[in-house]
Amino acid sequence: MSKINILKNKIPEHLGIIIDGNRRWAKKRGLLSSEGHQRGLDKVKKIGEWCRKRGVKILTIYVFSVENWNRSKIEVIYLMKLFEKALSKENINDLFKKGIKIKVIGQKERLSKILQKRIKEAETLTKRCQKGILNLAMSYGGKTEILEAVKNIIKKEIPANKITESLISQNLWTAGLPDPDLIIRTGGEQRLSNFLTWQSTYSELYFSKKYWPDFTAEDLDQIFLDYSQRQRRFGR
Question: Which CATH architecture has domain 11-221?
Fold first, then answer.
């Protein structure tokens, strides 16, 4: 932590994480994929606390993509139950006490009624929290997000010559938030997989070979150290 403390001014304000490798982690150990997903959820709780203590203001976690609906019905149902568990009153109250605002970005209308209810309760309870923001990208896709933004602009009957990059950003699910400074993907794959497609154009990227359940606080510190040594020119 000493190196991180020295470089604290270079901790990313907005961190995005693509959590990957739960199923492969379980398979490697001869376990059911459901066990991998459960361990993955446990790690999501930990990463939020690690980031809060290190000064990250906004954390956006890719927990379920629009493509994930194509997985087996049994796996999807299990994941939805896990999300309901993650948004339990106990967990949300804990975040509320810490001053963390919760927001779910994605196609919330595709989620179960119970999950939609819990999301609404969580967002309502924490909407005035100001110590940090936790975005859960659920039934999320970057292309879908842009498509919905374009539809919203058309509905508002805004003339074509008035459409700007800023206007599109204002109609995204992440409206009002800065773009991610850094995006981490675990699991060894080196792609963004439809995550924050519009917002990630100048994000720094880091691809970890570790499966998500194996990711540690020390790994996060090392990535932040790597990030702090990069020069972000933004095309200049």
Answer: 3-Layer(aba) Sandwich (3.40)
